[in-house]
Amino acid sequence: MGILTASEVRANIYRLMDEAASTHQPILIKGKRHNAVLVSEEDWQAIQETLFLMSVPGMGQSIKEGMTEPLERYSADPGW
Q1: A Pfam family matched by this chain, by name (predicted)?
Q2: In whole angstroms, what is the distance from residue 19 CA to residue 8 CA?
């Protein structure tokens, strides 16, 4: 994670937005009063989805169990 001051971010915001989107690495912004993190919208949406799924009772365990199943057991066409 890159660490920049708010002034550095202000001077380079468009480049940093491109960097966050292309590298999928967060950028820590250090301020005088507070700190913040710059992440791409795509990464933010993924974080939100993960938090939602982990809030569903039993979902985490179900995902872990599903990851141990061999792919050959399943059809390429889910039938949806």
Answers
A1: PhdYeFM_antitox
A2: 14
In the three-class reduction of DSSP (H, G, I as helix; E, B as strand; rest coil), residue 3 is classed as strand
CATH number given to 1-61? 3.40.1620.10
Amino acid symbol at 11: A
Q: Report the alpha-carbon distance of residue 72 to residue 80 in Å, rounded.
A: 19
Q: How do residues 2-17 score in pLDDT, each as one tens digit?
A: 899 999 999 999 999 9
DSSP assignments along 4-46, one per residue:
EEHHHHHHTHHHHHHHHHHH---EEEE-SS-EEEE--HHHHHH
Task: Identify residue 12 by its one-letter amino acid code.
Answer: N
Output the pTM of the full model.
0.73
Cβ atoms of 38 and 8 within 8 Å: the answer is no
